[in-house]
Amino acid sequence: MKELLHRKWDVIIIGAGLGGGVCGRTLAEAGLSVLFVEKGPATPRRAENNQDCGYEDPFAREMFGCWPRQVEARVNGTTTIGWGAQGVGVGGTSVFYAAAMEQPERHDFEPVQDMPHPTGGWPVGYDEFAPWYARAREIMAVNGEQDPLGDEVSPLARPTPLAPRDEALGQALIKAGLHAYRAHLAIRQLDGCKECIGRKCPRDCKMDGRSAGVMPALATGRAEVLDGAEALALVGDAGSVQHLRVRWHDAEHLLQARAFVLAGGSLSSPRLLLASEAPHWPGGCANSSGLVGRGLMFHINERIAIWPPRGAPPSSPGPLKAYSLRDLYRNGQDRMGLFQSLGLPADYGNILFVLHQRYDTSPLRRLSIGRELLRVPAMIAARVLGDARVFAGIIEDLPDDRNRVLYDPARPDTIIYDYTIADELMARRQRFRRLLKQRLKGLRSLWLNHRPELNIAHPCGTLRFSDDPRRGVLDRDCKAHDLDNLYVADASFMPSSTGVNPGLTIVANALRVGHTLAQRLRASG
Amino acid sequence: MSDPSDSPVVVITGASSGLGRALARRLVAKGFRVIGISRQPDGRDNQITDGLGNLFTGFAGDVADAAQMRRIAAEVEARIGPVAILINNAATYERGDFLCTPAEEICRHIEVNLCGQINAASAFLPAMVDRGHGRIVNITSFAGGDPLPGSLGYSVSKAGTRSFSKALAVELAGRLPGIVVTEWAPDMMATHIGRPDGVDPDRVAQLGVALALNADPALHGATFLQDQQILPRRSLRRRLKDLLLLKRPVRPLRLIPDQTPPGGTR
């Protein structure tokens, strides 16, 4: 391991998650030497745990791949401290994700005839991105069906047949006039596939930053992982980055590379730039625009349980994350988003988890018996909801520079953000709920949340790309405007949050960035 | 199991005598390939392999030596096959008045009885972790909770093995559900470290075989005293609370002695 500290690498990737993993794989496959610098420790490949590890001890949390520290979130002016959704270790948060790999639509990237774009449009439009989405589906082994309402996409592997009960639910949705299609998922459906939604997949079946990124990169023989290494700051001169300063085994080291790819995730990548402030980098590295950390977006989640029609066959084994629908993706001028199976049964454990989450942010949180008493309503709810399927609608969030990630030098590994749900978003949410209620008429359903829920697993936008260096941190290639060898390959680059889960966009863009960077490095020898 | 080269591999430390030997005989009779690790691989009086046939392989090794355990684990995995079960059985027990026993002799108990379990688990676990499944039974004793004069080293070492089993179970729980760790405190036996009026180790081995062959995830982190699972004590307050929360009391599990007759000789 020590030897890794002293080599000069072609590229150092900071963060071995979904974006970093895929970008590093592209670079290594192009013949370049790649070092993944990963905060988390090495963990067993066969681990199957979810993110609810039950420990508050930072070291123990990292053994499970969970972010070691609590997140300080100021939402609508109220500060709460709690466990976030971020992961550490090879694969990052993506080892826990639900494998949703949906492609955004044209209006997510650029103005269309009847709908302007909130940012005027991404510097790279729908048509230019399209081949990268196709390549992303290929390396992520995405399966699913064509969306009957949208453009045809390829490649798509054939999904495993559903259990009869879920099949009946799909028929009922179609009968209600909705256009349900089999969700696009990065799961290879190997024999005995356990559909590891929300937990680590012990095999290379679920495709994530580890199985589709870091592992294939290591297989080239040109990539290595330095795990348990905390990125402290980038070091360089006005025009380029020369070193990454890391803490590894209680000592600080300066790592060297020709180019650096930042991929710590939208809540962490900007913090490293802010932490790298120097006389020639006032306000942080790559921050001449003052926009580093700004423009933070989440999606708003609406969860709803839907029952298959009366007389449908009882539950039997089969895929759980069954359907996606784009009937509410947009409505007139309104940007809404994807409606999809959550992939979790409405069983006792999942209901209790949701109730605990709510309890822990409520004023009652110090009363431990109250928390335990949630078992009773959870048991009743499990009886009632037992055979329902939980769906979630996501509503697109739009950028506001006041929403941002902050960096506190006294607590360098604490994620801190300040976010206000815009009035416009709240109003759009109400319209979304009204519309959904209308469209689900005739189906037995139950709303599971009433207050707006931030999807804290979908942060993006904190280092957005723009052709104008005053309006974005990155250029169209996701290279920092201010520096000639610093790139970004996570969801930070997104100028708007789109109406779908960010996974496929992260992969497509990481492939694109990796390709451009590899060409440049090879051209300059 | 007609083809012996396909049968699962069980590793038993301290297999040359007593309970280890009895477990080996019973597991061989059931068709398992058994690896016996002991300081005297050919047993006291060179009898260990008697009648155990080609399903048994002895390895000379001192569990107190971590490097030796790693070498043996690598050789077993490469030459014999993937280890499915590890039974941490090796133990030493020498009586001695603490006031006139050199510290080295006291500490030797800890090195063999406690560090031996740690060394063997550490050596055989990585391959189990790579495969995602495995079974470990740590043989322990409640001696540490109620020490007898003249047994200080043994008592301390066994208190350590109890803690080791729990700590190892916690390390793996949640992450690797296919690896099941259980601690087992068998009856006092008529062995060279037991006492003459103790139970026949072969009868005790019937329970050990049943426990080792049961890899039910519910046994992870469980403690067995003889054939009975010992559940953590619940306070009155806890019991009232559980009643209020509609939690059903957990029933302790009971082992059913394995009935396959042993092979080989004693």
Question: How would you describe this protein?
Answer:
Chain A has 525 residues and is an alpha+beta fold. Chain A has helices at 18-29, 58-63, 106-109, 126-139, 164-175, 209-219, 269-275, 348-360, 368-373, 375-385, 423-439, 503-523; strands at 8-14, 34-38, 71-75, 78-82, 180-182, 223-227, 229-236, 241-248, 251-262, 297-306, 323-325, 330-331, 334-335, 339-345, 389-395, 404-406, 416-419, 445-447, 453-460, 486-488. In chain A, β3 and β4 (78-82) form a beta hairpin. In chain A, α1 (18-29) packs parallel to α6 (209-219), α1 (18-29) runs parallel beside α12 and α8 packs across α10. The mean pLDDT of chain A is 94. Chain B is α/β, with parallel strands linked by helices. Chain B has helices at 18-29, 66-80, 103-131, 152-172, 201-212, 236-244; strands at residues 9-13, 33-38, 56-60, 83-88, 134-139, 179-185, 222-225, 228-230. In chain B, strands 3-2-1-4-5-6-7-8 form an 8-stranded mixed beta sheet, with helices on both faces. The longest helix of chain B has 29 residues, at 103-131. Chain B starts with 8 loop residues before the first strand and ends in a 22-residue tail after the last helix. Residues 43-47 of chain B have low confidence and may be disordered. The A-B interface holds A 43-49, 53-54, 63-64, 202, 369, 372-373, 375-376, 379 and B 129-132, 171, 174-178, 241, 244-247.
The proportion of residues in beta strands of chain A is: 15-25%
- End-to-end gap of chain A: 27 Å
Report how far the terminal alpha carbons of chain B are from each other. Answer: 24 Å
Largest sheet of chain B: 8 strands, mixed
Tally of helical segments of chain A: 12
| Apparent shape of chain B | globular
Shape of chain A from CA axes?
Answer: globular
Question: What percent strand of chain B?
Answer: 15-25%
Helix content of chain A: 25-40%
Radius of gyration of chain B (CA) equals 18 Å
The number of helices of chain B is 6
Number of E strands of chain B: 8
Structural class of the secondary elements of chain B?
alpha/beta
The major sheet of chain A is characterized as: 7 strands, mixed
